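Query protein
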Amino acid sequence: MLKTTNPRTGVSATINRQPSTRTDVEAAAEQAEIAWRELMRRGRAFRAELLEAIATYVEEAREGLITTADSETGLGTARLNGEVSRSVFQFRLFAEAVREGSYLEAMIDSAGRTPLGDAPDVRRMLVSIGPVAVFGSSNFPFAFSVLGGDTASAIAAGSSVVVKAHGSHLLTSQLSLDVLQQAARAVNAPEGTFGAVFGQEAGLALVKHPAIKAASFTGSLFAAESLQRAINTRPDPIPFFGELSSVNPLIVSEGAAKARGADIASNLFASFTGSAGQLCTKPGIAFVPEGPQGQLLVDSLTQLTQQAPSQVLLNDRIRTSFAEISEGLVRAGATPLAGMQDAARSRLEEPAEEPSGAFSVAPALLETRASILSADLAEECFGPLIVIVRYTSLDEVAEAFTHIPKSLTATLHFEEDEDDVLSRLLPTLQDNAGRIVFNGYPTGVRVTWAQHHGGSWPSTNSQHTSVGVTAMRRFLRPVAWQNAPAAALPEELRDDFTAIPRRVNGVLALSEKVTVLSGT
């Protein structure tokens, strides 16, 4: 039997769920393939209806979802309530996007005479890639798990979904699956539209199954490499979209440190300790100028960190990793700041005030210099820890970035009169991150059309976003129809269809305006 663990106490309990067998995995994948073909036949209007039904059922199940997730994650009801709201919003946003239809990239080039001679009729649009395996993440039991954006974007694209439940919140995953299936039954969706498997071996078997045509994952590099090896054994390897590791560097200019150092310290503290530092966009490195203004900022941040209580991590594996990596950063040359020695010890020992087995750590603040920054000092530490990097020039900052792995985000705090800061650092930021934040903080990812939550390796292994409407693009593939009779064409490519934007003979033809939800 599988077990669930309360991270606040470390106490585990057996649940009424066995790891999925190979037969279970085969059944889920085969049902998903049958359901996918039916979803494609029913079209966009039905998928939009399904997505809206899911939003309604998630809202109705809010209280039970939050209570269950809090007992398995220790993230707190306020954070989890916001996450449920985000999931509800995502499903409704994708429903509107499916109706609007521009994501299909529908294009028509009519037959006729061209400068290159007679040309055939060619029509192209994006279609669903097939059933998708979604791997839930530990740090987002709703927004990046069974009820998350990967599930929403896959359904919007026309795919059925089989989720691999994360071991840190098995009961939450089961309850979330129940909600999806209730919504599916309410609109008479095909059986197998949503399925789930439990256990690591089941996850490996799932990505090997021939019915699965793509996989999405949020988690560690180690786990991603294991899945990729399994995928590579297939006779037809499938796309694997992984969000993996990110340090998310943040830079504070001299002008910003002088003008609003205390405010930056307060908000930076909230950003690197929010959700116990277990956010993929947590700033793990902050560049602060040498000198009195930078020192005041660091002193303020140090005081806030010293006064902070221990925080609960999601599971023992994360706590162990936090201890090992933070200790490794110190061995590599990072210095615990004044007053941080006790916090450093608490990373390696169980805090006395916590019950035996609780997965708690004290927030940690380390310091180094840009001139000696190395890859060993730029390793991601998942949890409430940040490395302050003191610098004397912008050239030092740009050089230090060559030792930082490319990230989901990069942040710059500067003042309007510091034109040299922007002009000298912007190319570096653009080369090293998928989202650039100005005078703000990277934690908190708006769910909207324009969002890009991705980046170069090792932050992701893909060009695509996993948040926002264009996350659908991961689960779509282009198909072109040449000289096809109308009966062979999807309705969106037929001559008399005008309900979505299309490019016809090179000219963009807009449909009647559709009101779309704005992001939050």
Q: What stands out?
A: Residues 338-357, 514-520 have pLDDT under 50 and may be disordered.
